[in-house]
């Protein structure tokens, strides 16, 4: 009754797995697809397949000088998960991070974490929803919070700037979307691939961690070089280009400690009040961002990546980029961060009857001070405040990259012996 | 200060819009993208762009014999919205449906609902988050509930089978995910495109409808001919192939009334208990579905689309496909429906600490009786019950297709005068 040989494949690649033992059924599937041909132009369906395949094949190596998922071009989907430690035994956590490192390397290659065994009387080693799928540019980025260091007796190794974010004016942070000990940022060009990866990692560490909060999100762009638009209709992340020209100055930690080559991740769950926004004039919207909506150009300039001149005045002597615009306030700090945000939208807010939608804001910076200064500059001034509410928050130190043979977080978890 | 000419474009196509007036900034964006080239293999980034573009260009005509989004191959993303009537004035609703028809035709072509005007002192006519994006195979499918007919005094036109679904054994339907008067199923290969379309339609009808509930979801497949896997790791929708061989028999209403050429849509929000599932043996999982996990084949068969023989017995005289398996119970009814489901996953369930994830089950059928008989057959027998909970429910009559010049629902909304 049980065809255990269907589980014999030792191929690690999810797609070659299917190709090798499921070849005949794939053939049938393609033939079967013709049943649908009447409903859709056949030629475009065929283009389609090619597309999915090429997008599916993209992959970014897990091992390297830095973790992937930071300066990597933003993908189309994110599953961001925050975990709590369920143990204070550092040896247990070392084992988890070792296993996560090996698993992440496989998952980002589009492989399952283990080949299937041939015993049908045990749960399958992989949950299977990515069988047959490519890597879709999957990146897995790991970070830990100040609480993580405290709980494991590693606080002596915390850089002085590594403390929880302060409460900012107008913050309405909910406990269920803040705090936590470990973050995993899983990004891919396919949401199921991103979720699958996180699910395997959690499953491997089930006895050592518990889940605190998560948020999925999306980005949209026809071409990966385009800056995606957020749900306010504005391009989001234009300033990254400038930040990345000198990532060492803005993004990467270069102090000689366990965080060398890493970066601080700030996450903010931001509810957007779309209906209020949609009733705002184009002029009001552009003065809120300080940018032209259709082009993404700074006000007073022509093209998206033109210099934003915050000193420039109009004929009446008023600033061309309003002082209280989001960009105007940000530019005045002179600080740069790397934005890597995703929109979300699902469900109706029962209290307002409006869309439950927003932005999962994520930024990477060399120091939390960059984000704190920027967010403090917005304060109560920012015209954006009318349209958004921050409801979730977190600060995580994302480790530097690792080479094959080492494991993520090793410098922190093993230095403590010599510290 | 305000560059109102940036809003002058009369081009309806979102991409040609950008191409015509944003050409120089697109050029800059491509140049700017080189700043990221060090982080990613350049050649794969370039393949990428091509992909997105081709996937983005897919479109399905809105006008036709049937509504699109039913037998159309399932896309990668859904935004499913249920609305309540905010008026009982049928003339107002006619106007809404006329406007929705025109808008849906444009949106599914990858156009905004209106070209931007040149007055910066009013809100932009489009919320803008799809500017620069293609159609991504967008389909918009409209349906109405029995309550819709009641509220508008059209109950005399309700087919006798068009009554709300009964409560099934083990149902735990929450009021906030059930009921409602109108549904809009928005599907596309990009979640932002799907959401954008719904947002414009709601905005156009703001004074006539309110939002009741919504759910977004996703499907994953490298090739559109592949059957996607659900979060249980099993292929979901294999039996559609058989259903579609005779859609007239299983899917399309052919009674000579306002629903001719339409179909009944059943939606069920189903929470999946992933952690319980993941602890179940492969044998237990396959006996629950009645299918082989990796291939999707019926138990006892070789390939996904092989015949499922529910009479077949093993050497001990036991059924090869267990009597209480999901497929075994379904097959015994002899009934077929068209499944068009999407997975969802975001957030952690605060009460259980587990993934908030599941399946937005959608099926289309010629009569609600098909779904009711199937769901009743599952009853308390179905082995699947241990792993799922139905928390949302709805039945909607999706109109037949319309030709250009007519509007969606016209046969219902205008027949009432002569009825």
Blueprint (SSEs and pairs):
2 copies of one chain form a homodimer.
Chain A: H1 14-21, H2 23-33, H3 42-57, E1 77-85, H4 90-108, E2 139-144, H5 146-151, E3 182-188, H6 191-204, E4 209-218, H7 240-245, H8 247-250, E5 263-272, H9 274-278, H10 282-289, H11 326-333, E6 338-339, E7 342-348, E8 355-365, H12 368-378, E9 388-398, H13 410-418
Antiparallel strand pairs in A: 1-3, 1-4, 2-3, 2-9, 5-8, 5-9, 6-8, 7-8
Helix pairs in contact in A: 4-6, 11-12
Describe the structure.
The structure is a homodimer of 419-residue chains. In chain A, a hairpin with a 6-residue loop joins strand 7 (342-348) and strand 8 (355-365). The longest helix of chain A has 19 residues, at 90-108. Chain A contains 13 helices and nine strands. Mean pLDDT of chain A is 88; it is low at 1-12 and 17-50. Chain A starts with 13 loop residues before the first helix and ends with a helix. Chain A has helices spanning 14-21, 23-33, 42-57, 90-108, 146-151, 191-204, 240-245, 247-250, 274-278, 282-289, 326-333, 368-378, 410-418; strands at 77-85, 139-144, 182-188, 209-218, 263-272, 338-339, 342-348, 355-365, 388-398. Chain A is globular. In chain A, 56% of the residues are buried. At the A-B interface, helix 1, helix 2, helix 3, helix 6 and strand 4 of A face helix 1, helix 2, helix 3, helix 6 and strand 4 of B.
Quick recap:
2 copies of one chain form a homodimer. In chain A, about 30% of the residues lie in helices and about 15% in strands.
Give the C-alpha Rg of chain A.
23 Å
**Helical stretch tally of chain A:** 13
% residues in beta strands of chain A: 15-25%
Instruction: Find the count of extended strands of chain A (DSSP E, 2+ residues).
Output: 9
Largest interface: A-B, 129 and 128 residues
Distance between the termini of chain A: 59 Å
Helix and strand element order of chain A = HHHEHEHEHEHHEHHHEEEHEH
Report helical residue fraction of chain A.
25-40%
Spans where pLDDT lies below 50 across 5 or more residues of chain A: 1-12, 17-50
> Please, what is the average pLDDT of chain A?
88
Oligomer classification: homodimer
* Number of domains as seen in the coordinates of chain A: 1
What is the overall shape of chain A?
A: globular
Biggest sheet character of chain A: 9 strands, antiparallel
Class from helix and strand fractions of chain A: alpha+beta
